[in-house]
């Protein structure tokens, strides 16, 4: 199965590495935004799923011209409908309107005895943070995909949040509550990371190979943490870092729509970007060689080369026939859309997350058949009952499933010898196929290291690391994301290596590697900050998943009608993973409980225990 297979795993409890002592609220002044007004520092990549306009007032652009006329000076704003901060209970959060600012809102969160005022929407896709999870150690986690912020500062704690939340001074006066803020900050609703840098140590250089999620994490965190050396990103993708997760859900073919940061962002952060393919690494000489003939030296190297989609070693799938695709890049989407434009029958091979997402995205205008080997989609990873929920959701969109099926070969139609025309199953079924999309898994993209005598790759081609994502046996080299096998300490984990193909895991690993690099550069040793893996998918409804269920022995499924459910994946008494649809914030709450080691056990779950009632 494409994305989610092999060895997935998450982690366990830790205090936020950046859990700072609570600052006096009156001393906090939001940092100003570092980009010029004309620069789009944020993707127009927002939700492909429909959301009320009000939910996304400001997230698409940094300082869009619309807000240039708004006030940039600190002003007192009264909050509507609240007369005292003492009405909030511990860890309680409420969203309130800001008087005098059109659509202006703020989130009030009580932590210990202090109330903090923050931007109310997650900076990833704009989820309402009032529905998130506040923890006693000072974090607020988004209800949707696991982004986490520090309550006291608004700073990003965990991916996939690209920007911090704004934090405002809040106070009571004469029976009313006020914030001290700039109108533009209230409207923009988030704070770009301060990455502006001029290199002060030119004898140090981090080279990052890859241009995906892991790279985004490492680049941003290096500059946020004030790494003073040079940074070079080498990616063979022609575009700057995009939101890859959208490719299969919305088939977006225009990179500018899902680019996380504009070119100006890299320039302002003094990050050199090269489009090239790394073909070899000389770990002793500390240089990487590229296809175009460059030799680039480094003092620290971060490998973040992701995955290569697998193909099928069967007749018809070995390059003999055209219109057979895999999906990893914008260019793959472009090829699929162009081939699908005047075709009707699409066969997706592999009932993986990506297979099902792309089938779903194409089902509006095409006859889509999904072929899977298991008796239910994602059965091995999610269990048959949950797999059948996905199947039922997608069947409503007209998708046909051929399950417990094995592909035999593909053949051309009578009108062409070079294009695919039929996919043949081993039971003799012939499926008309104008187009085939393979969703049969990925392998780590480490071919450039295969014959390198300085490194021993794992059996699956991945790279073993320690908790800081530092490559075992090599000095000053890190591996992150889909190519990394790292020690897992979450529920059910004993420190054995796992490889997890999730967007958040790659980005959090990048942030961890950046912390290790910066602290090593300062001669400070640090404890690894752990995170719980979070994954999401769009399968007729939004699936959320946390934890790692590499070896679950049971699934406790609570169906709540209308396609809503919570599935607890257990290994013995331990709940090792949780999947949900339609019951936010159960996944986020479970992830936080797992992080701090307070997740309910199987017996408690079977007895009806409610994770939302446990204080984190
Ligand atoms: C279509 C799709 C949908 C997905 N949806 C979700 C989702 O909804 N939720 C979720 O959690 N995860 C999802 N994933 C998984 C997630 O995107 C990956 O786990 C994540 O992108 C891994 O990040 P990475 O940095 O390791 O690799 P990538 O993001 O794949 O980046 C690897 C980069 O390295 C470059 N590269 C490779 N080899 C070389 C080389 N030799 N030289 C130079 N550059 C090189 C590549 O061009 C690419 O830019 C999805 C993946 C895909 C493909
Ligand atoms: S919207 Fe908050 S993590 Fe995605």
From TrEMBL:
<dbReference type="GO" id="GO:0005737">
    <property type="term" value="C:cytoplasm"/>
</dbReference>
<dbReference type="Pfam" id="PF00355">
    <property type="entry name" value="Rieske"/>
</dbReference>
<dbReference type="GO" id="GO:0051537">
    <property type="term" value="F:2 iron, 2 sulfur cluster binding"/>
</dbReference>
<keyword id="KW-0408">Iron</keyword>
<dbReference type="InterPro" id="IPR036922">
    <property type="entry name" value="Rieske_2Fe-2S_sf"/>
</dbReference>
<keyword id="KW-0274">FAD</keyword>
<keyword id="KW-0560">Oxidoreductase</keyword>
<dbReference type="GO" id="GO:0016651">
    <property type="term" value="F:oxidoreductase activity, acting on NAD(P)H"/>
</dbReference>
<dbReference type="InterPro" id="IPR028202">
    <property type="entry name" value="Reductase_C"/>
</dbReference>
<feature type="domain" description="Rieske">
    <location>
        <begin position="102"/>
        <end position="179"/>
    </location>
</feature>
<keyword id="KW-0285">Flavoprotein</keyword>
<dbReference type="GO" id="GO:0046872">
    <property type="term" value="F:metal ion binding"/>
</dbReference>
<protein>
    <recommendedName>
        <fullName>Rieske domain-containing protein</fullName>
    </recommendedName>
</protein>
<dbReference type="InterPro" id="IPR036188">
    <property type="entry name" value="FAD/NAD-bd_sf"/>
</dbReference>
<dbReference type="InterPro" id="IPR016156">
    <property type="entry name" value="FAD/NAD-linked_Rdtase_dimer_sf"/>
</dbReference>
<keyword id="KW-0411">Iron-sulfur</keyword>
<dbReference type="Pfam" id="PF14759">
    <property type="entry name" value="Reductase_C"/>
</dbReference>
<keyword id="KW-0001">2Fe-2S</keyword>
<keyword id="KW-0479">Metal-binding</keyword>
<dbReference type="InterPro" id="IPR050446">
    <property type="entry name" value="FAD-oxidoreductase/Apoptosis"/>
</dbReference>
<dbReference type="InterPro" id="IPR017941">
    <property type="entry name" value="Rieske_2Fe-2S"/>
</dbReference>
<comment type="similarity">
    <text>Belongs to the FAD-dependent oxidoreductase family.</text>
</comment>
<dbReference type="Pfam" id="PF07992">
    <property type="entry name" value="Pyr_redox_2"/>
</dbReference>
<dbReference type="InterPro" id="IPR023753">
    <property type="entry name" value="FAD/NAD-binding_dom"/>
</dbReference>
């Amino acid at each position: 199965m494409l994305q989610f297979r092999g060895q997935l795993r998450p982690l366990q409890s830790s205090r936020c590495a950046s859990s700072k002592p609570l600052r006096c609220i009156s001393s906090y002044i939001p940092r100003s935004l570092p980009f010029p007004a004309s620069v789009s520092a944020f993707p127009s990549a927002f939700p492909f799923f429909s959301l009320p306009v009000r939910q996304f007032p400001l997230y698409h652009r940094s300082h869009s011209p619309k807000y240039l006329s708004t006030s940039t000076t600190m002003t007192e704003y009264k909050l509507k409908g609240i007369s005292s901060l003492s009405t909030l209970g511990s860890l309680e959060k409420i969203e309130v309107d800001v008087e005098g600012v059109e659509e202006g809102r703020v989130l009030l969160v009580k932590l210990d005895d202090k109330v903090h005022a923050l931007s109310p929407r997650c900076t990833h896709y704009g989820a309402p943070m009032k529905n998130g999870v506040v923890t006693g150690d000072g974090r607020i986690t988004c209800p949707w995909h696991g982004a986490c912020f520090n309550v006291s500062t608004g700073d990003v704690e965990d991916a996939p949040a690209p920007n911090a939340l704004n934090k405002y001074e809040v106070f009571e006066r004469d029976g009313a509550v006020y914030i001290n803020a700039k109108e533009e900050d209230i409207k923009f609703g988030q704070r770009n990371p301060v990455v502006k840098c001029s290199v002060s140590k030119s004898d140090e250089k981090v080279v990052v190979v890859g241009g995906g999620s892991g790279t985004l994490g490492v680049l941003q965190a290096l500059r946020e943490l004030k790494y003073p050396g040079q940074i070079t990103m080498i990616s063979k993708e022609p575009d700057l870092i995009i939101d890859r997760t959208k490719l299969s859900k919305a088939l977006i073919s225009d990179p500018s729509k899902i680019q996380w940061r504009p070119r100006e962002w890299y320039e302002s952060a003094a990050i050199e970007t090269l489009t090239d393919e790394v073909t070899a690494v000389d770990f002793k000489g500390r240089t990487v060689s590229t296809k175009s003939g460059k030799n680039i030296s480094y003092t620290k190297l971060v490998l973040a080369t992701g995955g290569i989609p697998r193909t099928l070693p069967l007749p018809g799938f070995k390059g003999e026939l055209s219109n057979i695709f895999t999906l990893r890049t914008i260019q793959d989407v472009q090829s699929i859309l162009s081939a699908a434009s005047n075709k009707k029958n699409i066969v997706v091979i592999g009932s993986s997350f990506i297979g099902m997402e792309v089938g779903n995205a194409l089902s509006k205008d095409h006859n889509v058949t999904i072929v899977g080997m298991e008796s239910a989609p994602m059965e091995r990873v999610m269990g048959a009952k949950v797999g059948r929920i996905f199947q039922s959701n997608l069947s409503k969109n007209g998708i046909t499933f051929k399950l417990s099926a094995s592909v035999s070969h593909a053949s051309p139609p009578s009108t062409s010898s070079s294009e695919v025309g039929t996919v043949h199953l081993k039971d003799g079924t012939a499926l008309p196929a104008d187009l085939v999309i393979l969703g049969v898994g990925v392998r780590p993209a480490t071919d450039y290291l295969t014959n390198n005598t300085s490194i021993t790759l794992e059996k699956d081609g991945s790279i073993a690391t320690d908790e800081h994502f530092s490559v075992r046996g090599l000095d000053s080299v890190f591996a992150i994301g889909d190519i990394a096998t790292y020690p897992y300490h979450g529920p059910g984990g004993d420190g054995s290596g796992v490889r997890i193909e999730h967007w958040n895991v790659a980005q959090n690993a990048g942030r961890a590697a950046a912390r290790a690099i910066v602290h090593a550069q300062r001669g400070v040793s640090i404890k690894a900050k752990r995170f719980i893996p979070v994954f999401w998918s769009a399968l007729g409804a939004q699936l959320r998943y946390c934890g790692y269920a590499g070896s679950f022995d049971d699934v406790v499924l609570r169906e709540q009608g209308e396609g809503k459910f919570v599935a607890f994946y257990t290994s013995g008494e331990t709940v090792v993973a949780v999947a949900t649809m339609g019951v936010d914030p159960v996944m986020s709450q479970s992830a936080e409980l797992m992080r701090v080691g307070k997740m309910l056990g199987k017996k408690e779950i079977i007895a009806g225990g409610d994770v939302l009632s446990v204080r984190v």
